[in-house]
Amino acid sequence: MNNSLQKKHGFSYARYGYYFSIPFILAFLIFNLYPTLYTVVLGFTDSKGLGNITFHILKDDPWKNFRAILKAPTFILSLKNTFVLWILNFIPQITLALILTAWFTSRRNKIKGQGFFKVVFYMPNIITAASVAVLFNALFGYPKGPVNDLLVNMGLRDSTTYFMNSASTTRGIVAFIQFWMWYGYTMIILVSGVLGINPEIYEAAEIDGANDRQIFFQITIPNLRTILTYTLITSLIGGLSMYDIPKMLNNGNPNNSTLTATMFIYNQSFQGSYMYARGAAASMILFLIIAALSAVVFFLMRDRK
Amino acid sequence: MSSLERRDGNPAVRALIYIVCIFLAVLSIFPFVVMFINSTRSTFEIQQQAVSLIPSTHLMENFKVFNGKSFNPTTGFINSLIVAVGATVLTVYFSTLTAYALVAYRWKMRNAMFTFILCVMMIPGIVTSIGMYQFMYRIHLTNNLLSLILPAVYAPQAVFFFRQFMLASLPLELLDSARIDGSKEFYTFNHIAMPIMKPAMATQGIFAFVYTWNSLFMPSILLTRDNMKTMPVMVSMLKGDIYKREYGAIYLGLSLTVLPLFIVYFALSKYIIAGVALGGVKG
Amino acid sequence: MKKRLALLMALVMVFSLCCFSAPAAFADGKTVINVMSFTDEVPNMINRYVETHPDFADKYEINTTIIATTDGLYQPALDQALASGGADAPDLYCAEAAFILKYAQGDMAQYAAAYEDLGIDVDAEIEAAQIAPYSVEIGTRPSDGKVVGLGYQATGGAFIYRRSIAKDVFGSDDPAVVGEAIGAGTQSWDKFFEAAAALKEKGYAIVSGDGDIWHAIENSSDQGWIVDGKLNIDPKREAFLDLSKQLKDNGYHNDTQDWTEAWYADMAGIGEKPVFGFYGPAWLINYVMAGNSGGSAPGEGTYGDWAVCPSNVGFFWGGTWLLANKDTTKAEAVAEIIKWITLDATEDGLQYGWANGTWSGEQGTKDTVASGAVMAVSNGELDFLGGQNMFEAFVPANEYANGSNLTQYDETINNYWRDAVRQYTSGELSRDDAINAFKTNVADNLDVEVDF
């Protein structure tokens, strides 16, 4: 940053950094500090069942819950599933979002109706996950459902397919829904990032005779770096916390093939034995994984200038 | 200048672009069509064929189901609107302010604050909801719309977005020249920085509005009196009984929930479409 | 600037503190009864009670909290409210069949008041009203053997079959003949499979999918999923693997899932093969089958072509139980409501209207109720069943159902089991692998010991 005035008066202005952060910090302290600390403490207790408010810190063996979680094959499987589902939806999602961004921000090749398209592509994101899950369950119904009817009538398959009973098709459907719900969101963020780039940079490039491809890769992408970091980090966090679609579509079935880490945590905490302590321990493990991966992303996307 | 060089590109490529876009648009609109059509169909019609493109005649019957199910669309709409507008305004304004603190000033704790914001963003929310619920219950913050609005001041993801956006698009020189002109810091933020942030604020505004409008978990726990419930909570009440779900009414409820979102979304969408050029910024 | 910001924050804080709602205080001096439920069914009943009992309405005010179970929120909210106690705690709360065990017999049973302690002469009243035994068993707390929960609906299950298909295959649509053919009362599936083979020869499926026989199988086992803290796979439940496989491999069903399009289609008789029957309680007829029969009067669709006979295996499916908080300070009023809903066998009680379909107007749906005494004097004739009195089959079905092989984790464990069975039936997993997958799920997700 080349900012002489800031340096000169650095001291006198710095305090505004603190002032302007106060509301955020206050809201955190009031509404989020207690729940967060409570969760951390819970991970080291024997808390179980909301009915029993009393619980004890595990003094003899504080890591008991963490060990139990890491030893559970279901948790390891749920982590694997989470990665598979995230990769399956994120790669096509960011690719399509970038392509659309390139199309819609091209200064030479104006797409007619692009305003309409931009608006419409975000729409899958405004329906609740529960409604989306109901819709896709109906579409892929077995032995009777629109997709099955279509495939059989078109002669693509001889008999109806039980989509939701096969690991690969169920994963494919979950990944597709995630992709379909979020590519528009990602595109809007990227487009807003491009709109924030100083137009003079583009004008200069055009005068230099750069073509669309060169402009996109050599001007748009580098100038979009901070926003791309945001997209990668938030998708990583969102993807690794994936919950409602796999939960509501098929409850993690068949054979736990779409059970995600957050669903596992939910099942520990809010189902059957209500093992909050274990759920809290699993949450902390998931937090560490997300934090480590985010650090990697930040490192890769750092400003190399 | 460059306008003379503008060309419309390869027609085949253009055709491909339109085909892809139209296909994606159909995929986007399809679920809404199904939802609206199903709200005119009876529960049994829906059970026999869940997806149909032919409207039926049961709209009024579905509407009548609301009466027996404590579903009051007007009350729900007003409550949802208060919560969503309140939370959106707080999220957008205070997140921009926090991000501005992180970008425009150099202070000792700046990096620590940013790392802190990133960390709290990564905390899986599922289990903390137990603590959140206990907390709200103990301080008797139930059946009060403020309990859903005030926490919106804290929105780490939005802060992160605004920070990244400002890093790329907020010229610090502009702030310096404002200072030279004698502008106070808070005034500079409100009258110089915020206008530049408009496209970003509109984007986050839409996301925050949609998120709050659709949120179900905290509202269902916190709002238990009929006259306090928001639209999604009322719809979830319709689903209450697995043995005799009123699917027609559920779809009507979902349609009524999504319609206001349409309006807000289209009203704000001009910022998504056009953005606001960085007027008057000279590097 | 700094001051203005601080002032703004202070104002926001004060404003929000003022709006923190205090516990509901009613100005007119009435005592508040807190009710917590997952649908408006019970709250509506209570409102009716208040409307029709002015003395009661003068003294009490009902404060209802309804949280739907569908999104998994009802139980955490109820648990928290019960555990925290105080003036906001529910005096009266409801539990559904899927989770009643937790509140009547399991971890949360400590918060329930024994009906007896509320001043209800519960044993005598149960006897007089002839309450279905399974319902009492479920509502009885094992630690002290006292009744803490009862319902208003009885959900004992029977076999609901198509008359026309019965005539074609078994030569008669008489419930006695069909009951004989499927082995009514034998607690076994042998006759059922003989019947399935006979039906298949004429191109019929005996049931729609394997989910249809699951409730019967679940309820027929001698022991529940958990015995002495350990997972126990009862041989009768384990047999579901093989029965389900047999149904599938022999083409005895249409391979549907319950609550999906194809399942509903079989009620209208428009599925792949015509389906002979469904296992279910009376509510299945009223709330699901009648509407999905493709008609609303005899002769239209399958409407009127159905009849009910006793099941080969006794079972129940669903139901709601009412419980009271042990710390309630309004025992008298709570007892009054509970009695009116669950034990009153007179024509003024809730159940009489419920059984005769007069509860919500003259054209309402008739349903089976907890009290056998009420059903004995009620009219259960349905056009949908070709005029048959459904109570003939459902009163014995309520006697036949078993309430002693359930555990508080059943909802979760059943989900794992049914997925494992689907995996085996469809050939994705071997029998051993399916059982192992099931055991792993239980071991990892519940506080239950599992032997591998």
Give your account of this protein's structure.
The complex is a heterotrimer of chains A (305), B (283) and C (452). Chain A has 305 residues and is mostly helical. Helices cover 70% and strands 0% of the residues of chain A. Chain A has one domain: MetI-like (MetI-like fold). Chain A contains 14 helices and no strands. Chain B has 2 domains: 2-60, no CATH class; 66-274, MetI-like fold. Chain B is mostly helical and 283 residues long. Classes of the chains: A mainly alpha (305), B mainly alpha (283), C alpha+beta (452). Chains in contact: A-B, A-C, B-C. The interface between A and B is large, with 108 and 103 residues.
List keywords for this structure.
heterotrimer; A: 305 residues; mainly alpha; MetI-like fold; 0% strand; flat; C: 452 residues; alpha+beta; D-Maltodextrin-Binding Protein, domain 2; 2 domains; five-stranded mixed sheet; three-stranded antiparallel sheet; 20 helices; 11% strand; globular
The count of β-strands of chain A is 0
The level-1 CATH class of the largest domain in chain C: Alpha Beta
CATH superfamily of chain A, called what? MetI-like
Q: Which overall shape of chain C is indicated by the principal axes computed on the Cα atoms? A: globular
Distance between the termini of chain A: 11 Å
Total of helices of chain C: 20
Overall pLDDT of chain C:
89
Taken together, the total number of domains of chain A comes to 1
Mean pLDDT of chain A: 88
Furnish the topology, listing elements before pairings.
The complex is a heterotrimer of chains A (305), B (283) and C (452).
Chain A: H1 4-8, H2 10-42, H3 64-71, H4 73-105, H5 114-121, H6 129-139, H7 146-153, H8 167-195, H9 199-207, H10 212-223, H11 225-240, H12 244-250, H13 261-270, H14 276-300
Helix pairs in contact in A: 2-14, 3-14, 4-8, 4-11, 4-13, 5-8, 6-12, 8-12, 11-14, 13-14
Chain B: H1 11-38, H2 43-48, H3 59-68, H4 73-104, H5 110-122, H6 125-138, H7 146-149, H8 156-169, H9 172-180, H10 185-196, H11 198-214, H12 217-222, H13 231-238, H14 247-274
Helix pairs in contact in B: 1-14, 3-14, 4-8, 4-11, 5-8, 9-10, 11-14, 13-14
Chain C: H1 2-19, E1 31-37, H2 41-52, H3 54-59, E2 60-66, H4 74-84, E3 92-96, H5 100-104, H6 122-129, H7 133-138, E4 140-141, E5 146-147, E6 149-151, E7 158-162, H8 163-170, H9 175-182, H10 190-201, H11 211-220, E8 226-227, E9 230-231, H12 235-249, H13 261-267, E10 277-280, H14 282-289, E11 306-309, E12 320-324, H15 331-343, H16 350-356, H17 372-376, H18 391-400, H19 410-425, H20 431-445
Helix pairs in contact in C: 11-12, 12-19, 19-20
